[in-house]
Amino acid sequence: MASSGKVLDFEEYVRNRQDALLRSARRLVPDPIEAQDLLQTALVRTYGRWDGIADKSLADAYLRRVMINTRTEWWRARKLDEVPTEQLPEARVEDGTEQHADRSLLMDILGVLAPKQRSVVVLRHWEQMSTEETAEALGMSTGTVKSTLHRALARLRQELESRDLDDRALGRRGAEDRGQDRCAA
């Protein structure tokens, strides 16, 4: 009977928290399907230890930690398959609102961060957790959270600035090319 109580308790928890948990997973991995896989894997791993979570109010933090660890395992295990090609694929242009473009840029730029840095940024700024809550969720000291966040934000600023400079240089080159075309005509 205790086993069926565990199942019902866990099922109720998942039913009540699934949207918030999926949002957390979505913030850790950019692909929506991969986020669902991440959450599913974390739920399977958590189910086996559900009785060990004495304070069920900390279940969200426990699950976030499992998702972070799982994502890190996947990241370490990934194979980098580069396929040489003579012709680069066409650049895709996202058609949508400016917000969609900003979100896409942000998700792209988050990719330059190390997994630990990305986890700290996501928990502090997306999940709006305090420094102490972030430290507890990630199993690190508050000082480590602060310094990691500082370095991560500095890296993000640097990446944004370099992309902005690259865009300006491309725009300048395009204008110079148009000027040369006019002179040739």
UniProtKB/TrEMBL annotation:
Gene3D superfamilies, sorted: 1.10.1740.10, Winged helix-like DNA-binding domain superfamily/Winged helix DNA-binding domain
Region (Disordered): 165-185
GO molecular function: DNA binding; sigma factor activity
Domain RNA polymerase sigma factor 70 region 4 type: from-to ranges: 105-156
Single GO BP term: response to stress
Residue span, RNA polymerase sigma-70 region domain: 15-79
Transmembrane feature ranges: none
Pfam families: Sigma70_r2, Sigma70_r4_2
Keywords linked to the UniProt accession: DNA-binding, Sigma factor, Transcription, Transcription regulation
Cross-referenced NCBIfam families: SigE-fam_strep, sigma70-ECF
Protein family membership: Belongs to the sigma-70 factor family. ECF subfamily.
Protein name: RNA polymerase sigma factor
Organism this protein belongs to: Streptomyces palmae
Lineage: Bacteria, Bacillati, Actinomycetota, Actinomycetes, Kitasatosporales
